[in-house]
Amino acid sequence: MSGSIASLSRSGTTFIVSANSFRTRVKICGITRPEDGRKAAQLGADAVGLVFHERSCRAVDRATAQAVIDALPPFVTVVALFQDPQAAFVRQVLRELRIDLLQFHGDEAPEFCEGFHRRYIKAIPMGEPGDPKAWVARYPSAVGFLLDSHSRGASGGSGEIFDWARVPHDAGVPLILAGGLSPENVGGAVRQARPFAVDVSTGVESAPGVKDPELMAAFISEVSNVHQGD
Ligand SMILES: O=C(O)c1ccccc1N[C@@H]1O[C@H](COP(=O)(O)O)[C@@H](O)[C@H]1O
What we know:
It contains seven helices and twelve strands. It has helices at residues 34-43, 62-70, 87-96, 110-114, 132-138, 186-193, 213-227; strands spanning 7-10, 13-16, 25-28, 47-51, 77-82, 101-104, 120-125, 144-148, 175-177, 197-200, 205-207, 210-211.
């Protein structure tokens, strides 16, 4: 994949926003076991996600989250995922654990998301009509947006895709493509949508919450192949 890197200023910061001439980042979400986190990092994942939404089959308690974090080497971003949480719960997680980035997957208002004084990404529900750029405008303090296939009010992590043609190439912020990605489809998804990063959960699992090393390896390899011209 070749072409120029798009960048522009947002809130005084310059972001590199599209995957034209550098590698697409990979986040493996819904890690529930230290060995899965360690393996994801070994394979080259840039970030791992810990789900703090209690209704998810991938929800972790704080002790488990700590064990996963302890298994990670430096330079792997730890993302804490919440869906319409109580503010006190988010604060408790931030107090007890070394979290690098927050991910809000529900109907949280911009003021709520920025109230923790921590970098955050906001999920956009692509399971309903609408222009993703309206969400970008509504959350000026978000450092990125994760496009998932859920509808507003529904949970993410469903393993379903949405129409990648709806991913804007001129959003001006880092976009993270999610929803039903797998080793089979991620190469095509990256070529078409040209996201800053991809995020996967179901597509690299052997059972809910249990990551499969071979599927994770295949997924990361498919993403890097895009940039090697395969
Ligand atoms: O993973 C979950 O259980 C989850 C629960 C609530 C909100 C979001 C959740 N996961 C996020 O959804 C994307 C896509 O998942 P999938 O690959 O389609 O299974 C996942 O990467 C998480 O960011």
